[in-house]
What does this fold into?
Amino acid sequence: MKDEVQAPQEETPNTYWRWLVESWRYPLGHNLGEKWYGVVTLLGEDIVLFIGLAITSNYIANMFDITLIHHASGFTFWAIVILFCIQIITILCSMVGHLFVFGSTGGFWQYVNKVAQVTNWNFWIVICAFFFLILSLSSGLLGFGEALVWIFYALFSLGSFLLVVCPDPGTEKMIHDPFWGAVIYLVMIIVIYAIISGLAFSIMINL
It folds into this structure.
């Protein structure tokens, strides 16, 4: 049974698609990939998600004759930048917690791959959210799209947190209690998110 849980490939997948499939099958398994897999996945999800949000926002603005969103393209650009920065910062905070608990992270790019791997079900959540947001333009299904966006955020946060307390199967040994790694992660997240929220609010006001 133990071997079945740790069944993911020990070698680097031959293709990006294979890496995706293995990540869906074993989110917390040992599944190495090329260093660009994680960044491309996260950035692609962000862009698709915000295209859907931008189209929906423009539709609502036009429907209610709201002129305050005439800079929607600039707003969307900064929203993508801010979300991507939040994701990278969340990953860095997770790395610090993981480093405290296990003494190593495998390097930045490999850790980004781990986060993308654990949260790769967001690949499907983003696609569903995009279609629900687009469909909401005529069918009133906006609530479903919004719910999926929140699930997207929740899964990313959960995946980053799990990597603080979960070792890479068969490759890492615990050197400190995971509880304190989780505390370090949460404190850093709260402080940095508060700072980013203030900056994001200032950018939106200026736009």
